[in-house]
Amino acid sequence: MRFLHLADLHLGRMLYGRSLIPDQSHFIANILLPAVDAHRPDAVLVAGDVFDRPVASAEAIALFDGLLSALAEREVPVVVISGNHDGPERMAVGKPLLARHGVYIVTALFEAFSPIEIGGAEIFALPYFENAQMRAFLGDDTLRGAGACMRAAIERMTARFTPGMPHILLAHCFAAGGTVSDSESALYVGGAGDVPTELFDPFDYAALGHLHAPQKAGRTARYAGSPLKYSVDEAGQKKGLTLVTLEGGGARAELLPFTPLHDVKRLSGTFESLLAHPADEDYTELILTDGAPVYMPAERLRPVFPNLLSVRNEWFSARGGTDAPAPQNIGRDALLRGFLRDVCGETLSTEDEALLAGILNETEANAE
Asked: Which residues are CB-neighbours of 134 under 8 A, at least 6 positions away?
């Protein structure tokens, strides 16, 4: 069996106030669906956080609707679980009808224990849950922590395994030891929110969602990661589509790289060097390394970086903010020259230099 493992689409996401709907639409139309056509997977598995908020925008819903329709037209089954960002009740609309067309949307706990058979494998689709929900569903008030709740759920699943068939888990959770990103919601790291990775061992493959960096989680589990970068700290991450092949009693995962509509990056350098940078339409954070303040850097750099996210000056950062005193190794005359150059576009003449020196000397004498 071969399938595409997706997660954390976060349709409708905003990045520094910018809508990523165009980027997400480009991903679906020009990257995901062509990959489906090229590799002809037996299924597409989506491990939660389809939307970025429980009450999704009309544009985000339209994107998801278009994706499901395109996969149904291609007769490629898709299994989707709700994540912690999704509104499960809203996602559940039309589930029975969609299931008859190979689109399985799983939003309720009881559905997780009836496997979906696709391509000769059993898929146990477990939507995101709060610990109290799992305790109530299993009728066991002694379960404490996500690890205990997940263990009880998996024990119930393994009791329903059909011998001789591959078994896949689709889940949205935090596996112990995972690498987190700034774009994720606050997680219970190192505490009751951790799920020990050995719990996934009974499955041939555990397709996880929740963490945005593609990464392994123990022996049989893997996070697909978000397909696009949703924070600047993800700039160095290698995103891709995860293509999984089950064969010979094991699973082989391959990360298929792609070029997004806009990348997310962080660049550093002096103001002048960045001003001379080739035009760049990626989402960019700039870090200025000048040894002095720069007047209105964002406005002046935006023609080069039209999708500029932010500008940070290390000179200010090293001094704790914009109200910090000027550096001792830069004289007031040099600061004033820089101000006149950057703000007024003026270069002082010899006569102006002499006048400036006189004014500064008189000011310093009066200050004493």
From this structure: 109, 143, 149, 150, 152, 153
What band does 188 get if pLDDT is binned at 50, 70 and 90?
Answer: very low
Q: Which residues contact 150 (CB under 8 A, 6 or more apart)?
A: 134, 171, 173, 195, 199
Number of structural domains in the chain: 2
Task: Please indicate, yes or no, whether residues 242 and 343 belong to a single structural domain of this protein.
Answer: no
Rounded-to-10 torsion of CA 104, 94, 131, 46: 30
pTM tops 0.70:
yes
Say yes or no: 202 and 351 in one domain.
no
Reported confidence tier of residue 251, pLDDT bands at 50, 70, 90: very high
Q: In what order do the strands lie in the sheet with 103-106?
A: 103-106, 78-81, 43-47, 2-6, 241-247, 250-256
The average pLDDT across 16-28 equals 96
Do 268 and 252 share a structural domain?
Answer: no
**Both 206 and 284 in a single domain?**
no
Q: Which residues of 149-186 are buried (b: 16+ CB within 10 A; e: fewer)?
A: bbbbbbeebeeeeeeeebbbbbbbbbbbebebbebbee
SS3 content of the chain, % helix, strand, coil (to 5): 35, 25, 45
Q: What domain range includes position 71?
A: 2-256
pLDDT at 331: 65
